[in-house]
Each structure stands twice: as structure tokens, then as C-alpha cells.
Amino acid sequence: MPTSARLDGLDFARFIAFVGMVLVNFTVAMGAEGQGSFLATTFVGTLEGRAAATFVVLAGIGLGLAANKAANKHDFNDHLIWLTSKRALFLLALGLLNSLIFDADILHYYALYFFFGVFFIRMSSAGLIFSIVALLVGFVIMLLTLDYDVGWDWKTYTYKNFWTLEGFVCNLFFNGWHPVVPWLAFFLFGILLSRLSLNQIQTQLQLFIFGLIALLTVEGLSLLTLALLAGAEQDLLDIATTEPLPPMPYYMIAGMASACMVLAFSLWVSSKAIGLSKTAGLRLCNNIGRQTLTLYVAHILLGMGTLEALGLLDGQNASGTTDDAIIASGVFLIATTLYIWAYSKFFTRGPIENLMRLITR
């Protein structure tokens, strides 16, 4: 598979993750979790925490591929570190602005993933695996020794001390929505995956099978462990969960496994004879995948802003269900598709992607 096809596959994977993210975030914003038909709640429930994890893995793959491409340049380390650091600062600023209106912003966490992750790009694969395990184990130790609930109002899912130095650092590294420990492990896992022969069908098949087996295994182990720990303290029960809060090892492994499956499927689709470049529908999905930074902001400002104007957000006396959230997500995604179809006739990258490149080049 040529390099362009591989990149097309990554864009398609970002598209899949974006759809999942919209479904989950709209459901949470409407306070519709667990409300609605069994099929709808189960479907969205399986996506919770997995779409965001896939995005972070893909970000790590992107940086790893960039490092591999530039490996022969003498100044590549300094240049890549400087460029990535500038883009991390851009994401941090954008994320903090976004946090003013959306508590579950991921962009300011992304900034730290890139800032720390760039120093791992030349590490050996064994070193990356060790670092991933250390992050997972480190978080378990932190959970058992620190107060994970500090700062949280779990009834409203708001973090009271976010804008204080102590609260911000604690949220960013330990008990936020996507804390650096252990979420940086997703990014490092992406760097590790970027070293595989992703253009080979055999590798794609192995990735999908590995992801499926790992996902089923960890979900089964989680159920077994929870059964064995029945009646135990909540901290011990948390260790066995595959829920994203708190992000315990079972959840992290499940997130990596899901990302492998999405990646393998996307790369396989892009390698077919029809090709993404020859299929209008897949090309459109590709273009959506290239603008996920812009669309992430849009789904908050425009998507959730519209829901708020219609009185459909949680806390507005709305009684939405997961089914309603899926419908709202579908409407937003249709609007997104129309926008991308028109915008892509004139521009390759999204407005915010272009702004980031302009400021940080």
C-alpha cells in the first residue's frame, strides 16, 4: 500500500472515532446516559471512552510516522521537538478556552500528550512497552494512595477547583477526564504501532485479531474480577472496571484493543482496489477525518450550543434519552457532511488546522 493510502486509512479511522465521540458527548451533555432503549444505551455505552482513546492512539501514530519520515534528517530531533512543542502550546491555549464552556475538553490534555510524547519517539519498542506498563501501574498506585474524588462533584460532573493551580495540576495528571497518567500510554502505544508494517494486509489482519481477542479477554476478566470482589470496597472494585472513570488497566487495555480494531479496519478499507480516492463517499469520510480538530470545536460550540438553545441539555429540565441523543448526533453529522462537502472543494485542511499551521510553522 502506498504511503498516501496508509494516511487515508488514518483519516478514515479519525472519522470513525469522531462519529463515536459525537454520540458519546451528546449523550452525556443531554444527561441521557442509561436512559432509553436497550439497543441504544448498549451501543453508546460500548463507545464511551473508546472513541477518545482511539483519537489519542491515532495521534501517537501520526507523530511516530512523522518521526520515521524525518529520521534521516540531521536536525530532525530538534526540529520535531520544537514544532511539536509549539503545536502543543496551541492546543493547550485552545483547550483552556474550550474548557470555559465544556468541562470535558480533551484538547488541553492532548497538548501534554504531544509535549511528553515527542521525547519518546526515539525510544526502543521495549522501552515504550515498559513505559506503557509503568503508566498503568503508576495510576493504580496513585488511586490507592490519593483521593480520586478530590475536586469532583459527581452529581453534576463538574470539577470545582479546576482553575486553581493545585486543582488544575491534579486534574491534568491524575483525576481529570483524560489525565496524563495513564492516558499518555495511549499516545505511546500509537508510537509503537507506527513502527509496524501497517501497509501489509497480514499486519492489518493480525492487528484486528489481536484487538478482538484482547478486548474480549479483558471484558471477561473484568466481569470475573468484579464477581470475585463482590462486596469489597469501592477502590478495589474500581480496579476491575472497564469504564473510563477511573481509567484502570482493564479500561486502558480495552481502549488500545478497540483502537487496533478501528485502525486495522480503516487501513484495510483504504487498501481495497476501489480505493478511497475513487469512492466519493469514502473520500468524504476522509475529508471529515482530516478536519477533526475543527469539527471537535464545532460539535461543542454549534452542536451543543444548538441543544442548549432548544432546552435539551442536562439541567434544563429536559428528559432526553439515548435514542434522542443518537438522533441529535445524526442531525449534526449530516450537517457536518454537507459542510465538509462544500468546504473541501476549496480547502484541504479545516480552519483551525490551517490556523495552527500558520501560527506554529
From TrEMBL:
<dbReference type="Pfam" id="PF07786">
    <property type="entry name" value="HGSNAT_cat"/>
</dbReference>
<feature type="transmembrane region" description="Helical">
    <location>
        <begin position="51"/>
        <end position="68"/>
    </location>
</feature>
<dbReference type="InterPro" id="IPR012429">
    <property type="entry name" value="HGSNAT_cat"/>
</dbReference>
<dbReference type="InterPro" id="IPR052529">
    <property type="entry name" value="Bact_Transport_Assoc"/>
</dbReference>
<feature type="transmembrane region" description="Helical">
    <location>
        <begin position="80"/>
        <end position="100"/>
    </location>
</feature>
<keyword id="KW-1133">Transmembrane helix</keyword>
<feature type="transmembrane region" description="Helical">
    <location>
        <begin position="128"/>
        <end position="146"/>
    </location>
</feature>
<feature type="transmembrane region" description="Helical">
    <location>
        <begin position="250"/>
        <end position="269"/>
    </location>
</feature>
<feature type="transmembrane region" description="Helical">
    <location>
        <begin position="293"/>
        <end position="313"/>
    </location>
</feature>
<feature type="transmembrane region" description="Helical">
    <location>
        <begin position="12"/>
        <end position="31"/>
    </location>
</feature>
<keyword id="KW-0472">Membrane</keyword>
<keyword id="KW-0812">Transmembrane</keyword>
<feature type="domain" description="Heparan-alpha-glucosaminide N-acetyltransferase catalytic">
    <location>
        <begin position="6"/>
        <end position="207"/>
    </location>
</feature>
<feature type="transmembrane region" description="Helical">
    <location>
        <begin position="180"/>
        <end position="198"/>
    </location>
</feature>
<feature type="transmembrane region" description="Helical">
    <location>
        <begin position="325"/>
        <end position="343"/>
    </location>
</feature>
<feature type="transmembrane region" description="Helical">
    <location>
        <begin position="106"/>
        <end position="121"/>
    </location>
</feature>
<protein>
    <submittedName>
        <fullName>Transporter</fullName>
    </submittedName>
</protein>
<feature type="transmembrane region" description="Helical">
    <location>
        <begin position="205"/>
        <end position="230"/>
    </location>
</feature>
